[in-house]
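Students often ask why we bother encoding 3D structure as a string. The short answer is that it lets us treat folding as translation between two languages. Here is a chain of 310 residues written in the first language.
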Amino acid sequence: MSTAPVKNRPIYREYRNDLNKLTFNSKPIINDLSKKAEVNADDAESVLKAIEDHLRFTVPKYKLPAFYLLDSIAKNVGGMYVSLLHGRLDRIFVDMWRSVDDAVRAKMERTMGTWRNGFEGGTRHLFPEFVLRKIEEDIARLKARAKETAKMVPDATSDDLLDNLTGMQSYAKKRALEERQQSAQRAVVARADSYNGSGHHRHHDQRNGHHKRQRTPEKAKGVFNHELLQQINSMIMKKKVEMLRRPTDTHLFAVHDALKEYKAIVLEAELPPERVREIREQLAALDSIPGGYKEFSQLEPIPLTQVSIA
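And here it is in the second language, the structure alphabet:
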């Protein structure tokens, strides 16, 4: 996933908010956003970052229209957009493929088919062959892994199911205890550092006739990440238990994959409070799927205008 800073934040925010209109496969909206991308070709990096983040954080129902927009920009605008996509298209495609159902995956693969021999009478690729081949190889590996996982998951009527659930619960308790211990250790170190640092400065200030109250080091960001990570780990464990009971529920597996992506985001860096709130809202939307039976497409989007874009 892309973690590069946004070069033109106003363009990024404006385009990111415009993407909220793309709630269905609307050709007029896609054409309008494609033209806007062309007008802002000098800020192609910021426009692509807006689309990429939208695909990462929006609910699965709205991913396909945004994917079609990306396809439209590459085909109708081209230029710098195609060049920038060479190094990130595989990640965008694979990340989205993992979070949607089979029907959307089939449409994505059909769209990718137009990227090969789809121009100048079938004599030119939209993207280089090595880019397309990398996507195909990664998707093939994911499909093979899914088949192997299905074979390894025990039958819901198996006598071993209870043992598997008990083992997973024990592991979850052990991990929670380790995390609490690590958190306590970090808090002790932080307090010690704060005490030593403030004591040193107080002594120095008193010698100079100043009596200023020293600020303690910020620790809000770490608390946010730690609590959010605990929430995601708990949700992942719940989904694993449900996956053992219903190994053929593809939507449940998609939710599990989405949770793992959110965990990677949280582990990647300290998150500001507004981003934590946004992720918590997305987690609530995922957790609202009862047992994985509810279609992703029935989820309502979380308007990005409710939170500030970091």
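Translate back mentally: The radius of gyration is 24 Å. Keep this in mind for the problem set.
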